[in-house]
Specification:
mainly alpha; flat
Length: 67
């Protein structure tokens, strides 16, 4: 009998980060995400990746998600 339910993704986002922000920050982040037409979580993840890559490259350190 085949397994029921949704098949597992090949590369799931399996980690969770809790980030506390002010109401004004959340509104601004949400507005920016809506302006670009992407979900808030995707917008935040993409922006964090850009900044992390830039700062780690400047420090001549490995960027794990680019490996």
């Amino acid at each position: 009998m085949p397994k029921r339910g949704r098949p597992k993704k090949e590369n799931p986002l399996d980690e969770y980060i809790e980030l506390r922000v002010t109401t004004a920050e959340k509104l601004a982040f949400r507005d920016a995400a809506e302006y670009t037409g992407i979900p808030l979580a995707t917008w935040m993840r993409e922006r964090l990746r850009q900044i992390a890559a830039r700062e780690l490259k400047k420090a001549h350190r490995t960027v794990a998600f680019l490996e």
